[in-house]
Every structure is written in structure tokens, then in C-alpha cells.
Amino acid sequence: MLQRPRRNRKSEVIRQMVQETHISAANMIFPLFIVDGVNKKTEVASMPGIYRYSIDNLLREVEACAKLGLMSFDLFPNIEESLKDKLATESHREEGLYLRAIREVKKNFPEVCIVTDVAMDPYSSDGHDGLVENGEILNDETLEILGKMALAQAQAGADIIAPSDMMDGRVGYIRNVLDDHKFTNVSIMSYSAKYASAFYGPFRDALESAPKFGDKKTYQMNPANQREALIEANLDEIEGADFLMVKPALAYLDVIKLLKDNTELPVAAYNVSGEYAMIKAAAQRGWLNEERSTVEVLTSIRRAGATAILSYHSKEVLEKGWI
Asked: What is the pTM (predicted TM-score) of this model?
């Protein structure tokens, strides 16, 4: 027997020597939730270990993460219901919570990378990612609002703008707005393949941003479709995206691989709240080894082709030395 693959598994040293896929702090982006107020830190009930932070505590959390080598953050705001309206005007108000948070993080930690979310749903009284008229999500009319939002975030110091709304043409529209205002160095990480998934529930709890009616199936993708992701990704690349993203990650490893095989752009993947909550719930009941299952999930996402992973596990795996 000339070939015995087990010879390359016979010791930990050799197993590490031939390991094909690695995860490091450089590959991780940590999503963080923000609330208004002072000295607030409230746990998200459906996401054990994940909190909503007021800006002062957000800065402390960013500092703690940076000491672990975790340097990239995606910020999401929990907006008071009284500030929400049909046009999501709070999203580009200069003294609004989100823009203040971006400015404070960049002022105190200019070396970190801030990814910002562009979508109407956290600010919309309808809870949808687009402008609603007579129960319909209007595509082109939404783009102007997204452009205002993206420009305000760039002015506040965002490094990467991440449109998550799934409106057609939004990448090109945002790229033109940024370039017209001399923000040519601000990147776009497009949610290219964002599916109408059942795995977003805990995230919507964290932001209190669930749709007030209907669902998001007219703009988010059908989970049954794979090739459609290529159409979306190709359009985003043509329109000027710098990164392409697949969301969720774990149930869509095939889509991550498909995009990776069909683009030279870096591919990001969002290991979403429901995927995080499943592991946490099973681990709390003793049904899974949390360290091994968490690292296995993150490794699978990298193995499928993700350059960067947005994950709620990011801080914990570094803090506990799991990766």
C-alpha cells in the first residue's frame, strides 16, 4: 500500500503542518449593536454573550477587542421607535445615534476598520429595507435614501459601506454618490446574495426592526436558488463593489464557493444571529462541545472560500484561544 493518508494525521505537529484552512483575527469582523444613552450594556436574550452598547461602552468593547487583535467591526443601531419614519430620515441626521457612534469610534481608534450598514429597516416606521407605498417596496425611489445614508456614513468616518437592502442598482448608485463627494477611497462591501432566511430572528430582536407587515421575499433571495446569486454578484461587481457578501453563511456554503469560483473580488460571509444562537443553545444544554462546534463552523465558512467572516463568535474565539 503506497498511499497511507493517515501518515499525515499521526501527530498534532504534522496535522497542523498540512492544515489547509486557517482562521485568524484578520479574517474576522465583529458585529456590534448600539443603543442611545449612557453606561448601557444589555444582553440580547436570544443571543447569549451579545450585548447592546451605549456609545461609551461601545468604545470600551472596541478597545478590548483591539487588544485581542480583532480590528474590524460592523455597527448596527437600535433606534427608538419615536425616531422612525417612512423616509428613514434618522439614518442621515448628523447628530443621530449611528453617525455619532461612527465618529466616536474613529476618533478614539483611528486604526480600526469600521463597516457600516446601509438599509432603511432600522430607521423605517415600516420595518422594511425600502420605501413603502401602498404595500409595495419601491426600488428606485429607495436609492436616493440609501445614497444619503451612505454619504453621511462616509462623512462620519466609515471605512467600508455595506448596503444590505438588496435593492437593484444600489451599489452603482452609492458608488456614484461617494465618488461625486470625493470619497473614492471608501469601499463597498455589497450584500450580493442575501437570502430571505429564517435565521435572522435574533438579529431583529436585537434591533427591534422586524417588518410591520408582510415579509422581505420580494427583495431578499429565495433560499432554493443558487445560480441567481451569480446574477446579483456579477451586477454588483460591474457597479463597483469591492467585496461581495453571502448571508447567511452556514446554510449557504455552496453559494460562498460559487461566488469564490467566479470572481477575483474578496468574498465575505455573514455567520448570522440564528446560526450563533443554535450553537449557544445546544452548548448550554450540553448537546454540543461549544469550542469544537464553533471552530468547525468558522473553518467550514473559510474552507468554502470566505476571505472575511462577520460573526458574533469573533471576540469569544480569540478571548478563549480557540483559534
From this structure: 0.95
The b/e string for 4-36 (b: 16+ C-beta within 10 A; e otherwise) is eeeeeeeeeeeeeeeeeeebebebbbbbbbbbb
Q: Is 247 a catalytic residue?
A: yes
All three cell numbers of 273, joined, read: 444571529
Query: Which is the catalytic residue, given 247, 260, 280, 315?
Result: 247
Active site residue 67: no
Alpha-carbon span 207 to 33, nearest angstrom = 8
Cα–Cα distance measured from residue 189 to residue 240, given in angstroms and rounded to the nearest whole number: 10
Given pLDDT bands bounded at 50, 70 and 90, which one contains residue 41?
very high
Handedness of CA 126, 128, 134, 138 (dihedral sign): positive
Report the pLDDT value the prediction gives residue 291, as an integer from 0 to 100: 98
For 5: left if phi > 0, alpha if psi spans -120 to 50, otherwise beta; the answer is alpha
Q: Cα–chain-centroid distance for residue 9?
A: 35
Read off the DSSP letter of residue 320: T
Contact 162, 189 (CB under 8 A): yes
With a CB cutoff of 8 Å and minimum separation 6, the contacts of 308 are: 27, 28, 29, 72, 243, 266, 268, 269
Average pLDDT across the chain, whole number:
96
- In the set 84, 194, 260, 280, the catalytic residue is 194
**Over pLDDT 70: what percentage of the chain?**
100
